[in-house]
Amino acid sequence: MSEDTEVSREPVVTPVRVVIGLCLVAPFVAMLWVGSYTKTDPDFIGIPFFYWYQMAWVLISTLLTVTAYKLWQRDQRGRREGGTK
């Protein structure tokens, strides 16, 4: 094949991919930084902060993962249609 018809498989860092990475890394950082949530106050409907903070991150992680997936689909669709890499 000639060089003109080959598709570049070289990894490209774009702003969208940086946002995707941040969406996927944020929950890990939040959960690994234990010092930020090792307390009991403030409580929420009688549930100590330690527990409801972690449960909130379950929902936040879901939303961030869905966002990353949708952005990735849009990025791949743009690459297939000949948009920016």
From TrEMBL:
KW Hydrolase (keyword) present: no
Record keywords, A-Z: Membrane, Transmembrane, Transmembrane helix
Protein name stated in the entry: DUF3311 domain-containing protein
Annotated organism of origin: Streptomyces coelicoflavus
Highest taxon in the source lineage: Bacteria
Membrane spanning stretches: 12-34, 54-72
